[in-house]
Design brief:
It comes from Actinomadura logoneensis. This protein is an alpha/beta fold. It has 16 helices and 23 strands. The strands form six sheets. Strands 15-16-17-14-13-19-20 form a seven-stranded mixed sheet, sandwiched between helices. Strands 10-9-8-11-12-22 form a six-stranded mixed sheet, with helices on both faces. Bound molecules: nicotinamide-adenine-dinucleotide (NAD).
Length: about 500
């Protein structure tokens, strides 16, 4: 039976007919499995109004009450993690184990947000002048919007809303239209946890819904995660309309392998980080930079491992890699195999011939592919492919490898594989990216650190979650207070004069 996904506004499913809808696919079969409503401007207004009306009550809800709701939400998401993972896998295509992993990483942010009473403590300075105290308080900003990509339909929204809501804001989430169901299930679990109606809303749709949120005067902060062109657009538009904005963009993550590295460890890492979730991760390794003379040996080890990867439907426990999200995306990713070869790369592994265990013949399949001898002028190097295509570039030295990483416009994650602590330390110090792995291919920060890239991978100042998330979702107020004290002679007119 075909499912129908609609908005979640003011604590319940939206009742009404959508003017426009999108199709949801089962990527392993290649067929439509349902439809999702696309918001018109009236529905954008309804979601934002629900969030605006819920804000005063939620802002004034005590920290202990907020925390107890967050703890209940944490328990509910944990209890429903398998169901959520299956839902994600059915629309995204990733294997259920990967989907469960994203729910677990999202839960870590909820757990971080459970500590909000501690995180929201301000500063206090007693007696800045005679009987004058100064202190700062962190207050919520109001209605916050989150606009998220298809590749982590639970985890990326959970980078945002647990922190925003814990800080006392209300939230409108616009998830990807390609896999919209997890967001609605999370909304239901919030309600079950006791979150008041209107504090968390889900609005589905495409550019029209996003533009409605960006232009809406009652939306005060926008968190975006997606591709770089849209991140730049969201950043510029939201800033022009006076909102605070953090917009995380695309990536081209390099993994530098120095000659002294453990090549088995490096090959394992390249394969899991290159092909996990079919390469549809913003932290996927897309370029291995092999520093001479290890290139040939490393590629041979990668090929050995790729040959053993099992490709199949996400809900088959035997599958290690699922299909891509849509047919159009699969075809675009596959086009880089031809262009790479035409531009001089070597096809070390051609994923077009990889056998698929089960699934439909029309599923959006592309097996793991390795392009060797890739150079910076090639399209497969310049573009973010966002699929199971691992490029291998060769560098003559550490300095040449560093120049390659530095010249790349993206700066999300980067890894170095080496047994030389000095080289690793130099790399960590010099490299121009937001997240660095040392013998760790996908250095996604823990929830209590913050996630974000540099350069074309982030527009704005704040990374997601951790203390940067708390600062993004709060405004600071500095108070200077003087109380008259009769026991000390009443009126005190002393006051700082400088400032
Ligand atoms: P996308 O940019 O196409 O879409 C992201 C969101 O923007 C979706 O909600 C979509 O509906 C909306 N959108 C799409 N086109 C729009 C337009 N013209 N105007 C306004 N809104 C629009 O990204 P995607 O394909 O869903 O996700 C993959 C991309 O996300 C990759 O580039 C990946 O690197 C990036 N990503 C980045 C991070 C990070 O942390 N930096 C994390 C995950 C994904």
């Amino acid at each position: 039976m075909s499912k129908h996904v609609t908005h979640w506004i003011n604590g319940k499913p939206f009742e009404g007919a959508a003017e426009r809808r999108g199709e949801i696919y089962d990527p392993a079969v290649g067929a439509v499995s349902g439809s999702v409503d696309f918001a018109s401007s009236a529905e954008v207004d309804a979601a934002v109004a629900a969030a605006r009306d819920a804000f005063p009550g939620w802002r004034d809800t005590s920290l202990s009450k907020r925390t107890s709701i967050l703890f209940r939400f944490r328990e509910l998401v944990h209890a429903h993690r398998d169901e959520l993972a299956r839902l994600i896998s059915s629309e995204h295509g990733k294997v259920v184990a990967d989907a469960a992993g994203e729910v677990a990483r999202g839960l870590e942010v909820v757990e971080f947000a459970c500590g909000i009473p501690h995180l929201l403590k301000g500063g206090f300075s007693e007696n800045v002048s005679s009987r004058v105290d100064a202190y700062s308080i962190l207050q919520p900003v109001g209605v916050c919007a989150g606009i998220t990509p298809f590749n982590f339909p639970a985890m990326v929204p959970m980078w945002m809303f647990p922190v925003a809501i814990a800080c006392g804001n209300t939230f409108v989430l616009k998830p990807s239209e390609k896999d919209p169901s997890a967001a609605v299930r999370l909304a239901e679990l919030w309600s079950e946890a006791g979150l008041p109606d209107g504090v968390f809303n889900v609005l589905h749709g495409d550019k029209a819904a996003v533009d409605g949120l960006l232009e809406h005067p009652d939306v005060k902060a926008v968190s975006f995660v997606g591709s770089t062109p849209i991140a730049r657009y969201v950043y510029e538009t939201a800033a022009r309309t006076g909102k605070r904005v953090q917009a995380l963009g695309g990536a081209k993550n390099h993994m530098v392998v120095l000659p002294d590295a453990d090549l088995d460890l490096a090959a394992d890492a390249a394969v899991s980080a290159g092909f996990g979730s079919a390469g549809e991760r913003c932290m996927a390794i897309s370029v291995v930079v092999a520093v001479d003379p290890v290139g040939d040996e490393l590629v041979a080890k990668i090929k050995e491992r790729v040959a053993k990867l099992r490709i199949g439907p996400g809900d088959d426990p035997e599958s290690e890699m699922g299909p891509l999200v849509t047919r159009a995306h699969r075809d675009k990713v596959a086009s880089y195999l031809d262009s790479g070869v035409a531009q001089g790369a070597t096809l070390a592994v051609d994923g077009r011939g990889t056998p698929v265990l089960g699934g439909g013949a029309d599923g959006f399949w592309l097996g793991p592919t390795v392009l060797d001898h890739v150079t910076p002028e090639m399209d497969c190097y310049k573009d973010e492919i966002f699929g199971p295509v691992l490029s291998v570039a060769r560098a003559g030295s550490y300095d040449e490898a560093m120049r390659l990483v530095a010249a790349n416009p993206y700066g999300n994650g980067t890894a170095i594989f080496t047994n030389d602590g000095g080289a690793a330390r130099r790399f960590q110090n010099e490299v121009e990216v937001g997240m660095v792995g040392i013998n760790v291919p996908i250095p996604v920060p823990m929830a209590y650190y913050s996630f974000g890239g540099w350069k074309a991978s982030l527009f704005g100042d704040s990374h997601a979650h951790g203390m940067e998330g708390v600062h993004f979702y709060t405004r600071t107020k500095a108070v200077t207070a003087r109380w008259l004290d009769p026991s000390h002679g009443g009126v005190n007119l002393g006051f700082p004069t400088n400032g």
